[in-house]
Amino acid sequence: RGPKSNSERRVIDGGFGKRPDPPADVTADEAAIWTETTASEPAGFFASAAARAMLKDYCRHRAAADKITGVINLFKADWLKNAEGSKRYAMLLKMRDLEARGAAGMATKLRLTNQSRYTPQAAGTAARANPTVPPPWEFGR
Question: What distance in Å separates the CA atoms of residue 54 and residue 49, rounded to the nearest whole number?
Fold first, then answer.
């Protein structure tokens, strides 16, 4: 009962927490993405098993998208001159799009994106904070 003493207020309850290590069954690329992602969030952000499972899926989507991008970057413009090359290029772009959408969906579910962290009220407050910018529907008038 009563206010805490100065010595009680100086004690930090708990610890600072530990960020989860990458799972053993992920590749080196996925582990690097895992480490990069967990380092940018508070220590307890991925405390639940469900959050860590979604994070693993996010890392896999990102790593796959990066690999496909590497293949696309090696694609030569001359190969697009025939139908087979164009078909392969379109397939690669579609594959990368699927992986990028998967990663974006997982990032949103994990609340890693700025948009997923805003409540509608906070977004409205941010919009009113800069009244000099016209709404998108008023551009070009």
Answer: 9
Q: Is 126 exposed, middle or buried (0-12, 13-18, 19+ CB in 10 A)?
A: exposed
Query: What distance in Å separates the CA atoms of residue 68 and residue 97, rounded to the nearest whole number?
Result: 10
Structure tokens at 51: 């959050």
Residue 87 CA, distance from chain mean position:
30
pLDDT tens digit sequence for 112-136: 987 766 666 665 666 666 656 666 6
Q: Are 112 and 37 in contact (CB under 8 A)?
A: yes
Closest-CA residue to 34 (of 10, 53, 8): 53
Distance CA 23, CA 12 (A): 30
The answer to whether 58 and 83 are in contact (CB under 8 A) is no
